[in-house]
């Protein structure tokens, strides 16, 4: 058989299966930043982006990195990163000093990891590979994670593909089927102590209550990160400076806004002649201009 035909057949087969390898953190960074810009400018369609926004995101990825993906593959990536982010919030909200902000990693015991992975398949990906750009994920997914959480239930029967970040490869989930209870129930937790005369709660009910408590803590973290001046307010001031979307300072500023509310508050209070120096200084501190 002609080797060229074999290669072509393999390529076609890969395309049919819809597999794509997102190699390199910079591609993910560009993807998240462009999604944020599109959501800010054009809004969402449900919990995802609008069709014309996916076209724009695809064009930016191709122009910036020579990376070509279709709308379905980008939606799958969007959902995958969202589910990793929700799992990250769940782990971060657990009591105890488990989170290391310097390395953006968690220090659970093997037994604890096993239990957590059984409850949420996306937790397993965070065990070996930290969540990329949590500040960007926070801005992009806050507000929809509570109403569109996927992957909290039993393991999906959908096929898996491989996602690679730099030298490490972690499992990716291509098409997600949500099995989570409505997150509104996270705000309906009965906090009253159960009378001793009542029958002891079943193990299943106890697990549901624990899940709701963890979800409530995760949602509180997301709300806290999203306080202060909004990204829309900060971006309005940024656009008035006339730097342009291709200016590195413009992109670094967007990254800073997503970091925390304190930076957004500082930005709003800056004088016009202070803006550029502030962006350079904070970007260096956060490693956004590396």
Automatic annotation (TrEMBL):
Alphabetized Pfam families for the sequence: Myb_DNA-bind_3 (PF12776)
Identification of the protein by name: Myb/SANT-like domain-containing protein
PANTHER family: L10-INTERACTING MYB DOMAIN-CONTAINING PROTEIN-LIKE, MYB/SANT-LIKE DNA-BINDING DOMAIN PROTEIN-RELATED
Residue segments, region Disordered: 181-202
Domain Myb/SANT-like: 28-115
């Amino acid at each position: 058989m002609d080797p060229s035909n074999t290669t072509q057949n393999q390529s076609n087969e890969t395309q049919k299966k819809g597999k794509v390898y997102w190699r390199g953190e910079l591609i993910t960074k560009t993807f998240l930043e462009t999604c944020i810009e599109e959501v800010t400018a054009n809004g969402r369609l449900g919990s995802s982006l609008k069709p014309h926004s996916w076209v724009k995101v695809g064009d930016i990825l191709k122009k910036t990195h020579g990376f070509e993906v279709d709308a379905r593959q980008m939606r799958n990536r969007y959902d995958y990163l969202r589910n990793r982010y929700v799992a990250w919030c769940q782990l971060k909200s657990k009591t105890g000093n488990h989170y290391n902000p310097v390395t953006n990693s968690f220090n659970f015991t093997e037994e604890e990891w096993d239990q957590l992975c059984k409850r949420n398949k996306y937790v397993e990906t965070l065990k070996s590979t930290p969540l990329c750009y949590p500040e960007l994920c926070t801005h992009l997914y806050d507000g929809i994670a509570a109403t569109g959480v996927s992957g909290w239930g039993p393991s999906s029967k959908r096929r898996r593909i491989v996602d690679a970040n730099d030298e490490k490869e972690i499992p990716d989930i291509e098409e997600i089927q949500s099995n989570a209870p409505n997150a509104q129930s996270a705000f309906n937790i009965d906090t009253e102590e159960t009378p001793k005369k009542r029958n002891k709660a079943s193990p299943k009910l106890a697990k549901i209550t624990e899940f709701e408590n963890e979800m409530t803590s995760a949602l509180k973290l997301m709300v806290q990160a999203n306080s202060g001046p909004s990204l829309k307010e900060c971006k309005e001031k940024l656009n008035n400076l006339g730097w342009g979307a291709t200016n590195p300072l413009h992109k670094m500023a967007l990254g800073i806004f997503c970091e925390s509310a304190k930076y957004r508050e500082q930005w709003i209070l800056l004088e016009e002649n202070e803006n550029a120096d502030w962006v350079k200084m904070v970007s260096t501190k956060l490693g956004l201009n590396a």
